[in-house]
Design a protein that fits this description.
heterodimer; A: about 170 residues; alpha+beta; three-stranded antiparallel beta sheet; 5 helices; B: alpha+beta; seven-stranded antiparallel beta sheet; 20 strands; globular
Chain lengths: ~170, ~500
C-alpha cells in the first residue's frame, strides 16, 4: 500500500518524464573511444609493418583492416546505444538516473544525502559546450555519482537547484 | 609563534630520542651488510656512510625532539614539528573522531605510548604523538574527550580569546569518568587461542616462505642435522612419488600457516576488553603491541556478524561495526566482538546500536542456483580446456563439477534479505558467512541493476549504499525476481523518505 501511495505522489516513473542527455554527447563519446582504441590500431599496424618488411606476411595488412572495421563499429554504435539508454530526472526529493547497455543500472540519489556538487568539463566536452555533474555522497560505491552529457547551462542550473539541499550534517 | 591564551606547550617523552635511535639500527645494519660480509676496501665505503649518517642523525634526533611541541586548547590540538621544514598543525577538537593509544614492545619497556589522533577527514590530517608517557597519553585522551563533551554541551566559548578561558582539565585526574566504565566483553586467553584455531589464512604461508627465500636454508640438511637418520627413510618414500610430495608439502605448509595464524591472532587479541563509557565503546587488546581505541557509537552505520561453517557448528561468531570515516588504511569495520557466542554478539550489539539481526531471511530467486552453476562451469571450462590441450590430466579438474553444484545450492540457501520497515538486513556467503544489518536512516544511495545475463531470467540485484561500506564485500542482494526487486526498492525508498518527513521536527535534517 505504501508503494502505491508513493507512485501516486511521484508519477514520474513513466519513462516519458525522464530526460535524455544532450545529443552531442554521442560525438564526445565517439571521439573519446576513438582516441582510446586508436592505440590498438597503431599497435596492429606496427606489427604488420614489421611482418611486411620481413616479407613474411601472406595477406598484407588484413589484420589492420579488420581492426579498423571493428574499432569503427565500436566507435559508431556504442556511443549511440549508450546515449539511448541514458535517462535522468531531478525530482523534488531525489536525483534519478538510468543507464547501461548490457548492465542496466537505476540509481536513486536522495537529495538530502548530497555532500557536495562538482561540475567538470574537459577539452572535448568544452568544444561541444557540455559538462558533467558530479554528485558526491558519503556512501562508498557512490562517493561520486556522475551525470555526463549535460549542456553546461543545464548542468549549472541543476547544480544550483540541488545546492539548496546540501545539509550541514548528512549522516 | 605560540598560540596566545593556550596552556604551556608540552614536549614528548625524552626516551623518544633513545627510541628513535634504536629503531634506526636495523636500517644501518642493512647498509652495513656488505661491509660486514666481505671485508674488502670498496665495501668499507658503506661503513663510512653509516658513520656519517650517525654523526648527522644523532643531532637531528635531538633537534627534532626539541622542536616538537603540542598544546591542547579547548578548541584544538596544536602540533608544531619539523627541523628543516617546519610544520604547524591545528586539529579542531570537534573533528577528532578517535584517540588511539598504541604501545609496541619497546615503548612498553620504556613506559611510553604512541597517540594517534584520528579525524573524520582524510589520513593526512591525523595527529601523531610519538612517544609520550602512558600517563600523559591517557590524560590527552581524557582531555580531548571532556573538551568534546563540553563543546557538545555548548559551554565552551567560540574562540580562544585572551585569558577569559579556564584552564583545561589537563592536569586534573578525571577519575569520575573512569569509574563509570563497565566491561561489556572480555576474552580469556583460552578463548583468544581458540579464536586463532578457527582463523586459517594462507597469508602467513606467503610471509614464511618469502622469509625463507632470504635465508635459503636447505630443509633436507636441516632435518638430517636434527634427526640423524630417523626421518630419512620416510622422506625418501614421500619424495619417490610426486603426488605424495605435493600432498605432504601442502599439509606441512597448511600446518605451519595454521600455527602461525594462531600466534599472530593471539598477539593481536590477547587480553581483549570492550568497555562502555558514556557514548563511547572503548576497546583494548594486544600482547606485544597493546592498542587502545574507541568506537564512536553515534557514527555506527551498520552491524556485521560473521561466522563460517566450522565456527557455526560450535556457536562461535564475530561482530563488527561499520563506522563512517574516509580513512581507508584504518579498519573501518571495527571488531566489537572478535570471537564469541551468539548471545555475546546479541548482547553487545544491543549495547552499541538499536540495529538488530532478524531471525529469518527471505530467499532470493531459485534461478540464482542455475546462474551460479553456469557461471562457474564456464569459468572452469575456460581454465581447464586450453590446459588440457597441452596436458591431458588437467581434465581431472572436471571432477570439481559436483562441488560447483553443491556450492551453488549452498550459496542460494545462505543468501537472503529482510526488511521490517525499520531495519534492513542481508545475509550471504558459503564459507565466510556474513550478516549485515543497518537501519533505514543510514541509507545513502539506492541502486537497482540488471545485467544482460540476469535479463534472461528476469532477475535484478539491489544495492543500498551506506557510509563506510566496504567496497570489496558490499552488501548486495543478488538475483531477486524483477518484480519483487522493484517493490522492495519502492518499500525501502518510501520508508526512507517517510522516516525523514515524519521526524522532521526533532531531526537536524528539517530545513
Amino acid at each position: 500500500m505504501e508503494a502505491a501511495k508513493y507512485s501516486e505522489q511521484q508519477p514520474s516513473l513513466a519513462s516519458e518524464a525522464l530526460q535524455p542527455l544532450d545529443p552531442s554527447i554521442v560525438k564526445v563519446w565517439a571521439i573519446k573511444s576513438m582516441l582510446g582504441l586508436a592505440i590498438i590500431i597503431v599497435a596492429v599496424l606496427v606489427f604488420e609493418l614489421v611482418q611486411f618488411v620481413r616479407d613474411s606476411a601472406t595477406l598484407p595488412f588484413l589484420t589492420t583492416f579488420i581492426a579498423i572495421v571493428v574499432v569503427g563499429a565500436i566507435v559508431y554504435f556504442i556511443p549511440k546505444l549508450k546515449y539511448r539508454f541514458w535517462r535522468y530526472q531531478l525530482r523534488d526529493q531525489e536525483l534519478f538516473l538510468e543507464r547501461g547497455i548490457f548492465n542496466r543500472v537505476r540509481t536513486i540519489v536522495p537529495l538530502r544525502r548530497i555532500q557536495h556538487l562538482d561540475i567538470s568539463q574537459d577539452i572535448i566536452e568544452k568544444e561541444f559546450s557540455l559538462g558533467k555533474l558530479i554528485v558526491h555522497t558519503a556512501g562508498t560505491r557512490s562517493s561520486d555519482v556522475v551525470l555526463p552529457g549535460l549542456h553546461i547551462d543545464v548542468a549549472e542550473h541543476l547544480r544550483d537547484t540541488m545546492k539548496d539541499y546540501i545539509l550541514e550534517d548528512t549522516i | 609563534m605560540e598560540p596566545t591564551g593556550a596552556p604551556e606547550p608540552k614536549k614528548l617523552h625524552p626516551l623518544t630520542m633513545v627510541h628513535r635511535l634504536i629503531v634506526a639500527v636495523p636500517g644501518f645494519a642493512v647498509i652495513m651488510w656488505p661491509a660486514l660480509r666481505s671485508g674488502d676496501t670498496e665495501s668499507l665505503i658503506s661503513l663510512y656512510i653509516v658513520i656519517a649518517l650517525g654523526l648527522l642523525g644523532l643531532p637531528l634526533v635531538i633537534v627534532q625532539y626539541q622542536r616538537f611541541r603540542y598544546w591542547i586548547t579547548p578548541n584544538e590540538l596544536i602540533i608544531h614539528s619539523g627541523v628543516i621544514k617546519r610544520q604547524h598543525r591545528n586539529i579542531p577538537i570537534e573533528r577528532i573522531q578517535n584517540v588511539e593509544i598504541v604501545r609496541r614492545l619497546l615503548s612498553r619497556a620504556f613506559g611510553t605510548a604512541k597517540v594517534n589522533v584520528v579525524t573524520a577527514g582524510s589520513t593526512s590530517t591525523e595527529g601523531v604523538l610519538e612517544y609520550v608517557s602512558l600517563k600523559e597519553a591517557h590524560r590527552i585522551r581524557e582531555a580531548i574527550r571532556s573538551m568534546k563533551a563540553r563543546q557538545r554541551a555548548g559551554t565552551v566559548p567560540e574562540r580562544v580569546d585572551d585569558e577569559g578561558l579556564a584552564e583545561p582539565p589537563l592536569g586534573t585526574d578525571d577519575q569520575a569518568h573512569i569509574v563509570e566504565e563497565e566491561t561489556l566483553y572480555a576474552m580469556p586467553v583460552s578463548r583468544v587461542v581458540l579464536s586463532g584455531v578457527f582463523r586459517f589464512s594462507l597469508f602467513y604461508i606467503a610471509i614464511i616462505f618469502s622469509t625463507l627465500q632470504i635465508f635459503e636454508p636447505d630443509p633436507l640438511k636441516m632435518i638430517e642435522y636434527i634427526e640423524e637418520d630417523a626421518v630419512t627413510p620416510v622422506l625418501d618414500q614421500i619424495l619417490s612419488s610426486p603426488v605424495m610430495a605435493a600432498i605432504s608439502l601442502a599439509l606441512v605448509a597448511g600446518f605451519i600457516s595454521w600455527i602461525s595464524g594462531i600466534l599472530v591472532n593471539t598477539n593481536r587479541l590477547f587480553g581483549f576488553k570492550l568497555k562502555k563509557d558514556d557514548g563511547r565503546i572503548y576497546k583494548k587488546s594486544g600482547l606485544l603491541t597493546v592498542s587502545e581505541g574507541t568506537i564512536p557509537i553515534a557514527k555506527v552505520q551498520a552491524l556485521i556478524r560473521r561466522t563460517n561453517p566450522a565456527m557455526r557448528r560450535f556457536d562461535w561468531w564475530s561482530l563488527s561495526v561499520q563506522t563512517m570515516g574516509h580513512d581507508v588504511s584504518e579498519q573501518r569495520h571495527k571488531q566489537a566482538v572478535p570471537f564469541g557466542h551468539l548471545e555475546d554478539t546479541a548482547r553487545i550489539a544491543k549495547a552499541i546500536s538499536p540495529i538488530t539481526f532478524p531471525s529469518t531471511y527471505q530467499s532470493v530467486s531459485r534461478l540464482t542456483i542455475r546462474r551460479m552453476m553456469i557461471r562457474l562451469t564456464v569459468i572452469l571450462c575456460i581454465l581447464v580446456l586450453p590446459t588440457a590441450y597441452f596436458w591431458k590430466p588437467a581434465l581431472w579438474f572436471f571432477l570439481l563439477l559436483p562441488v560447483i553444484v553443491v556450492y551453488s545450492i549452498l550459496r542460494y540457501r545462505n543468501h537472503g534479505y529482510n526488511f521490517d520497515g525499520k531495519y534492513f538486513s542481508i545475509r550471504r556467503g558459503v564459507i565466510k558467512q556474513v550478516e549485515w544489518s543497518t537501519s533505514i536512516d543510514k541509507f545513502h544511495v539506492f541502486y537497482l541493476q540488471q545485467t544482460i545475463f540476469q535479463k534472461r531470467y528476469n532477475l535484478k540485484s539491489l544495492y543500498i549504499d551506506t557510509a563506510g561500506a566496504s567496497p570489496v564485500s558490499s552488501p548486495t542482494i543478488v538475483d531477486i525476481p524483477a518484480v519483487d526487486a522493484e517493490q522492495l526498492l519502492d518499500q525501502l525508498y518510501t520508508g526512507f523518505q517517510h522516516h525523514y518527513t515524519s521526524s522532521a521536527h526533532d531531526s537536524p535534517f528539517s530545513g
